[in-house]
Amino acid sequence: MMLNELNQIPEALYEAEATELHQILGGPTLIHLPGRRLEPLFFSVLLHGNEVTGWHALRALLRQYRDQTLPRALSVFIGNVEAARVGLRHLDDQPDYNRSWPGTDSRESPESRMMQGITDTMRERQVFASVDVHNNTGINPHYACVNVVQHDFLHLATLFSRTVVYFTRPLGVQSAAFAGICPAVTVECGQVGQEFADQHALQYMQACLNLSELPAHPVAEHDLDLFHTVAIVKVPEQASIGFGINRADIVLDPEIDHLNFRELAAGTCLGHINDDGRHRLTAWDNNGYEVGSSFFRYQDGEISLARAVMPSMLTRNERVIRQDCLGYLMERYPLDLA
Predict the structure, then answer these.
(1) What is the chain's pLDDT, residue by residue, as a tens digit (338 residues)?
(2) CA nearest neighbour of 268 among 311, 308, 228, 231
(3) Are residues 328 and 215 in the same domain?
(4) Which residues of 91-101 are buried (b: 16+ CB within 10 A; e: fewer)?
(5) Are 60 and 196 in a shared domain?
(6) Are strands 327-332 and 225-234 parallel, antiparallel or unpaired?
(7) Is the pTM of this model over 0.90?
(8) Quick one: which of 217, 216, 215, 208 has its CA closest to 37?
(9) Is 336 exposed, middle or buried (0-12, 13-18, 19+ CB in 10 A)?
(10) CA 99 to CA 103: how far, in whole Å?
């Protein structure tokens, strides 16, 4: 896999839709642009080809500075343009672009070598901060994610949202790879197709570009709701999935994605099983162990929570469930540990 590396914006990029980028760029592309402050800000978009808010915001930002000097040098990575061409997270023969960065537990691939090269390049350029822009498929608020709980990371995150999630799994994500060289965040901009999401992402990019530094002092407690991902929930590969009245091995609440970012009590019902218990939801902790029995109870076929948790990114999109996960489980994280 060849990475395109450019030092200017191709003219056609200013008007291009995400579905057209493969024609203009030909593949994943890293673009470096000069600015008044020399340490570059890094933006990555379209690591998942169907999550286009980041591209919409970046395109609007580039239009604004088409004939102006940027406040700070900027490096942008436009990721999976082949998947974006057909509106998919990734193609069936591709690895997930946001599970292929340094630190991944997946086997080495052309994509992982490319991500290592990008990380090395930005380290050499003394990157100032990193922002990876995503959408999600369930009903979620806009929120930011960090992989390191430090004050500069939290300031960068709360510039986007007071809701911040600290996570260490899954491995191989962009923000975790960059966390070793600069403050880094992932921003989750809700569902695709919402004009508000595009505007929010653009405003955040503008704010980041105009930062002279990131504070080292603590974020005020009243400005931050901090959560910690404690488990990734998956559906067994061999189990069929349904929602509501659908006949399937595992039948989930038809409005399960409405449970995201709600603090749920133990005993909350999530659905039921139809196969005499042969297939159950699995939950994987931050050490990679299966801990489903700690989070789920099964009685008379009903699936319920064994303990109080807050879900995030629960989705009804079966393709996403199969390619990634059903969602995540979180708990509040004490700010005094930051």
Answers:
(1) 689 999 999 999 999 999 999 999 999 999 999 999 999 999 999 999 999 999 999 999 999 999 999 999 999 999 999 999 999 999 999 999 999 999 999 999 999 999 999 999 999 999 999 999 999 998 999 999 999 999 999 999 999 999 999 999 999 999 999 999 999 999 999 999 999 999 999 999 999 999 999 998 999 988 999 999 999 999 999 999 999 877 899 999 999 999 999 999 999 999 999 877 789 999 999 999 999 999 999 999 999 999 999 999 999 999 999 999 999 999 999 877 65
(2) 308
(3) no
(4) eeebbbbbbbb
(5) yes
(6) antiparallel
(7) yes
(8) 208
(9) exposed
(10) 9
Do 66 and 213 belong to one domain? yes
DSSP assignment letter at 3 = P
DSSP string, 50-91: T--HHHHHHHHHHHHTTTS-EEEEEEEEE--HHHHHHT-SS-
**Together in a domain, 218 and 234:** no
Provide CB contacts within 8 A for 96, sequence distance 6+.
48, 89, 90, 172, 323, 324
